[in-house]
TrEMBL record:
<protein>
    <recommendedName>
        <fullName>Delta-aminolevulinic acid dehydratase</fullName>
        <ecNumber>4.2.1.24</ecNumber>
    </recommendedName>
</protein>
<dbReference type="GO" id="GO:0008270">
    <property type="term" value="F:zinc ion binding"/>
</dbReference>
<comment type="pathway">
    <text>Porphyrin-containing compound metabolism; protoporphyrin-IX biosynthesis; coproporphyrinogen-III from 5-aminolevulinate: step 1/4.</text>
</comment>
<keyword id="KW-0350">Heme biosynthesis</keyword>
<dbReference type="GO" id="GO:0006782">
    <property type="term" value="P:protoporphyrinogen IX biosynthetic process"/>
</dbReference>
<keyword id="KW-0456">Lyase</keyword>
<dbReference type="InterPro" id="IPR013785">
    <property type="entry name" value="Aldolase_TIM"/>
</dbReference>
<dbReference type="Pfam" id="PF00490">
    <property type="entry name" value="ALAD"/>
</dbReference>
<dbReference type="InterPro" id="IPR030656">
    <property type="entry name" value="ALAD_AS"/>
</dbReference>
<dbReference type="InterPro" id="IPR001731">
    <property type="entry name" value="ALAD"/>
</dbReference>
<keyword id="KW-0460">Magnesium</keyword>
<feature type="active site" description="Schiff-base intermediate with substrate">
    <location>
        <position position="252"/>
    </location>
</feature>
<keyword id="KW-0627">Porphyrin biosynthesis</keyword>
<keyword id="KW-0479">Metal-binding</keyword>
<feature type="binding site">
    <location>
        <position position="237"/>
    </location>
    <ligand>
        <name>Mg(2+)</name>
    </ligand>
</feature>
<feature type="active site" description="Schiff-base intermediate with substrate">
    <location>
        <position position="197"/>
    </location>
</feature>
<dbReference type="GO" id="GO:0004655">
    <property type="term" value="F:porphobilinogen synthase activity"/>
</dbReference>
Amino acid sequence: MIHPQYRPRRMRHDEFSRRLMRENTLTSNDLIWPVFVHELDGRTPVASMPGVDRMSIDELLREAEQALELGVPVIDLFPVIDPSRKSLDAAEAWNPDGLAQRAVRALKQRFPELGVMTDVALDPYTTHGQDGIIDDTGYVLNDITVDALVKQSVSHAEAGVDIISPSDMMDGRIGAIRTALDDARHINARIMAYSAKYASAFYGPFRDAVGSSGNLGKADKKTYQMDPANSDEAMREIALDLDEGADMVMVKPGMPYLDIVRRVKTEFGVPTFAYHVSGEYAMLKAAAANGWLDERKCVLETMIGFKRAGADGVLTYYAPQIARWLKEA
Ligand code: PBG
C-alpha cells in the first residue's frame, strides 16, 4: 500500500478544520440590493424575476427598514418611469422632483444610516430605451449624453444620494461627473463606476422590469457596452475610470465574468464590485422553482465565488434573502 506524504483530505475531515482553513467569508456587509421603484401605489411583480416587485416609495421604505435590520449596507435604486414622461432627450432624468430623486429623499430622511445608491444612465427615460441621446441613425452620441448624465448625477446628489453609479459606458463621464459634483460641493458623493460593463444578453429580465425592452426592440447596446470576448479592454476601461476619479469599480454581469473580477482586483487593488444581474437571478429562480437546484446552497456558493474571485461586494436581487439566510446559519 502506498501512503501519500501529503493528504489534503486530512484538513477536510472535520468541520472545525474546514472552518479553520476557510479563505473567504460572506457577510451581509458584502451586499448591495438593487430595487425597482415605480410611480404607482403598491407593488407589481416582475414576471421574469420571481420574488422581485416594482414598489411604490411607501413599500420601498418598508423594505428598506428590513434591509437595514438585516445589515445590508446599501440599496441601489432603479426607477420605472411612466411612458408619458419618456422623451428623446430624457429630461425627466434630472427633474428635481422625479421618481428617483423623491425616492432618495424619502430614504435618506427616514434611514440616514442606510447607504443609498442610484443608477445613472438615460435608459429608463428615453423613448427608445438606449442609455444615451441618439442621432437620426440611432447611434448614441457620447458628449451630449455625458452632459445629460452630469445633470442627472447632480440632481441625485442634491436629493442626498450617497453613491452615484454611472451604468451608461460613455467615454469621459466619470471625470465630468466628478468635476460637476465637486463644483456643486458634493465632495463626499461617491462614484461606483460600471467600468467593465459588457453588452450582455443576461440583462433581459431587468429591461422587462424597467419597461425598456419594448422600446429597445431589436436594437442593441454594442456601440458602448463591451464585447464579451474582451479582457484587456476591461483593464483599460478600469484604468480610465480610476484616473477620472472613480472611488469603486464594477464588473457586470457577474458569474460569466469572474476572470475579469480577479484581474481587476489583482492588477488595481481597488474596491471592486460585481453585479449578479437579472438574468443570473432568473436562471437560479427557474431552476429552483423546478426543484432542479437547491436555491439556498447555490446562491450562497455563487456569492462565495464572487468573494473568492476578489469582489469586495456584490449587487444582487437576492441581498435581503441572503442576509436572512446568513442570520439563520
Ligand atoms: C441600464 C442598466 C442595465 C442594468 C443596470 N443598469 C441594463 C442595460 O444596460 O441594458 C442591468 C441590470 C440587470 O440585468 O440586473 N443602464
